[in-house]
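Request: How about a record?
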Amino acid sequence: MPKKSILSTLERKSILILGDFVIAGFSLKNFVYNAIDYQGRGSQETELTIFFLGFLSYAMMGYVLDHYNIEKITDSKIVPRVRSASVTFGFAILLIIITTILFDFAYWRIHLLIFMFFFPLQILIWRELFNYIFKFVPTTKNVLYLYDESTSDSIQNNIELINGIDKKTYYNVVEYVMNLDEISSNGKDLNELHNVDSWIINTRNYDNFSESLERNLVNTILSGNEVITYTSFYETVYEALPITSHNDSIYEILQLKNTKIRYIQSIVSFNFNLILSIVTGAIFFSVVPFVFILNLFFNRGPLFYTQLRVGKYGKEYKIFKFRSMVVDAESKGAQMAKKNDARITAFGKILRKFRIDELPQILSVIRGDMVFIGPRPERKVFVDKLNEVTPFYNVRHLVKPGITGWAQVKYKYGENLQDSIRKLEYDLYYIKNKSVSLDIRIIFKTMTTILFSRGV
């Protein structure tokens, strides 16, 4: 008899979001029908517009401020509550500002205060209840990890990734088995090894499973367990491609399948990048005078610096940035920037903290060497080193590099070649799954990165 399956991370997020939006709906109802002066409340279309703007702005703030990131590892119980209060109270203030500007409403103060303070309180209580319930409801799946000789070299690292590195995966390896066919040919039921909820299989060849192993796979599915490949697990949980597993996804990227769909995607992406480039260009040209003046006093030397970076199809092009390091920063040769880098000037730290130093790259976008969203360009000296480490690094050069990208919003600032390889996994995931919705997620995550000054 199939056992009850453990709720996935997406299912738990859905429950959390549903609860939030039910509370938000009732709070918006109180805001529209009680807080706004009845005389000036407006038509039904106006009320529906307020509801729409309310739900939309709340969803945007929740995403930008990681309000629904239940995979994030934190030892503090205070930080999630402070984040929740910031999102909800900030949303209440934002909604009042929006409705005042758009509709010039008058408000009943008592109901306005109820909306501003009781909405955050209700969300906080709901989330405490949510966390309390899932203390008693199983959330982590016990994993039987199956692998063969071709993937045995990275066994320890793969198990750590399944159990979770820098994030909660809600998977836990309780048993790992090598030489699949030998074990299955002994007639042993692998489901009996432990109270297993999920099988994760990592092998380069799925065509030569024995009849006994296939029978075990079918039985475990019928018993209510999950059976997935390591690649599928990695893509779903980490939203990246595991290049060490030599999975088929990389070869799909190389063949550039679904070209007709990609033509449509290219048209949509062109317009999307054009709008973002115009906005970024306007910001760039407006800040140049201020950076120029401050540079004269606090960062004496050239305002810009240029470097050659590797672009689409491996061709080098010139990149522009506001200078944030000392003039002779690379007198000892090319070096990757790192946290607390002594070469960064005091003024340069401010430029980097708010990503102002990146704005001149819009000139490369205008010249056609870059787009707004794509893999970040790297220097040839580092590209050559990374190509020696992994044969897949040049795959990222199938598309134009970008000012911001999936790797930049999903992974920390790269300080060494190993970090660059991890970021490559996110770049390959982006190339494979490139879409407008993914681009929008990157924009919102970039806003988060700037707000919280993540990286160097």
About this structure: The longest strand covers residues 141-147.
